[in-house]
């Protein structure tokens, strides 16, 4: 029966939202996750995905021509049904002459602290295209914590962990929580290095054990070689493309140099987790020959990003979330 005061679009969206929440409710509530994807664009049948950060909604808008009236109906439902008090729209489509950040750099930041598997993360919902926490890698982070913890039990010592293209350092938080002796967090951006330091401080991890480097990742390879640093686990989660004043990076083009450089810093038995969001990414045949490679994509995509769990190959014929591989030296 149609709910009084709600138009047909609202009724349809309400049905979609209820179904989406039903699919992930047990997972979210069981783990007390405070930042998650409430609904994908496939579930809503409109070009917008909804992420929930405590009482705030972050709307990932994928089409400039989105029906604005439908979007307002969606916001009303998110307010009434899910207690959302404020909204932040992120343009996931190309806009000519738009700032690269896609955010509102001139406005005051809207910062919140969210809990994920017992760890605290500072997010900024307003100023950047991304919030400081990649929600689709929640289970990858959890996997890292378990790997580090298991390593300590087996080897009687904590890992030396390297986090490249580290963004705000979330993988380092999980590694530190798992008992890593040291974490090394590397990013070229001063903003993200400062943010990573704040996240480490927020979780009580000391500076003398958890280092942050503002450095190009390839320059760090040279630095680590000079300092004779070796690592038991290296996390590499680069952007698809990036540019700075001296060079540009492409994950498809530069993957061999990236992985081989990291491998030169691996301790015996060390492992690399390599992830990216390049939609048409193909892992190099050379890397497949030179390393033991396991595709761990399906193990690392959290339930709130699942699109069609009935079809066992859902990740192959639906929207790409991320690519993720575990590499070990032969």
Give an account of the 3D structure.
It is a single chain. The chain is α/β, with parallel strands linked by helices and 330 residues long. It has 2 domains: 8-108, RNA methyltransferase domain (HRMD) like (Transcription Regulator spoIIAA); 135-329, Rossmann fold (3-Layer(aba) Sandwich), CATH 3.40.50. It has 11 helices and 15 strands. The strands form 4 sheets. It has a 7-stranded mixed β-sheet, with helices on both faces. It has a 4-stranded mixed β-sheet with strand order 1-2-3-4. Strand 7 (160-164), helix 5 and strand 8 (182-187) form a beta-alpha-beta unit. Helix 1 (8-31) packs across helix 3 and helix 4 packs parallel to helix 5. The termini are far apart. The relative contact order is 0.10. Mean pLDDT is 92; it is low at 309-319.
Features:
globular; 330 residues; seven-stranded mixed β-sheet; 15 strands; Transcription Regulator spoIIAA; alpha/beta; Rossmann fold; four-stranded mixed β-sheet; single chain
Concise account of the structure shown:
The protein is of the alpha/beta class. The chain is 36% helix and 26% strand.
Average pLDDT number: 92
Oligomeric assembly? single chain
In whole angstroms, the N-to-C terminal distance is 62 Å
Rg, nearest Å: 21 Å
Give the % helix.
Answer: 25-40%
CATH architecture of the largest domain: 3-Layer(aba) Sandwich
| Total number of strands | 15
Low-pLDDT parts are: 309-319
Number of domains: 2
Instruction: Name the strands of the widest sheet in spatial order.
Output: 9-8-7-10-13-15-14
CATH fold topology of the largest domain: Rossmann fold
* Biggest sheet record: 7 strands, mixed
- Helical element count? 11
CATH class of the largest domain: Alpha Beta
The fraction of residues assigned to DSSP E strands is 25-35%
Structural class: alpha/beta
Question: In the CATH hierarchy, what is the superfamily of the largest domain?
Answer: Vaccinia Virus protein VP39
Shape summary = globular
């Amino acid at each position: 029966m149609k709910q009084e005061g709600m138009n047909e679009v609202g009724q349809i969206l309400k049905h979609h939202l209820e179904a989406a929440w039903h699919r992930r409710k047990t997972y979210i509530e069981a783990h007390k996750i405070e930042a998650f994807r409430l609904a994908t664009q496939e579930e809503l049948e409109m070009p917008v995905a909804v992420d929930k950060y405590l009482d705030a909604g972050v709307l990932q808008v994928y089409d400039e021509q989105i029906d604005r009236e439908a979007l307002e109906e969606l916001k009303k439902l998110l307010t009434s049904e899910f207690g959302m008090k404020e909204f932040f729209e992120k343009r996931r489509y190309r806009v000519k002459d738009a700032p690269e950040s896609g955010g509102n750099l001139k406005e005051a930041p809207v910062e919140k602290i969210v809990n994920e598997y017992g760890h605290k993360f500072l997010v900024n919902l307003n100023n950047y295209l991304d919030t400081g926490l990649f929600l689709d890698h929640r289970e990858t982070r959890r996997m890292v914590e378990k790997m580090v913890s298991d390593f300590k039990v087996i080897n009687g010592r904590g890992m030396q962990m390297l986090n490249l293209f580290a963004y705000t350092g979330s993988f380092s938080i999980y590694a530190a929580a798992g008992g890593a002796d040291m974490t090394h967090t590397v990013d070229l951006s001063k903003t993200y290095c400062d943010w990573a330091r704040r996240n480490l401080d927020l979780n009580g991890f000391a500076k003398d054990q958890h280092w942050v480097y503002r450095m190009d990742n390839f320059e760090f390879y040279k630095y680590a070689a000079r300092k004779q640093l070796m690592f038991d686990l290296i996390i590499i989660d680069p952007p698809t493309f990036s540019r700075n004043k001296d060079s540009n990076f492409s994950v498809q083009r530069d993957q061999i140099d990236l992985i081989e450089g990291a491998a030169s810093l691996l301790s015996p038995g060390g492992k690399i987790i390599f992830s990216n969001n390049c939609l048409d990414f193909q892992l190099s045949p050379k890397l497949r020959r030179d390393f033991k490679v396991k595709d761990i994509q399906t193990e690392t995509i959290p339930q709130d990003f699942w699109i069609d769990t009935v079809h066992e190959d859902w990740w192959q014929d639906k929207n790409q979330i991320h690519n993720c591989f575990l590499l070990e030296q032969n």
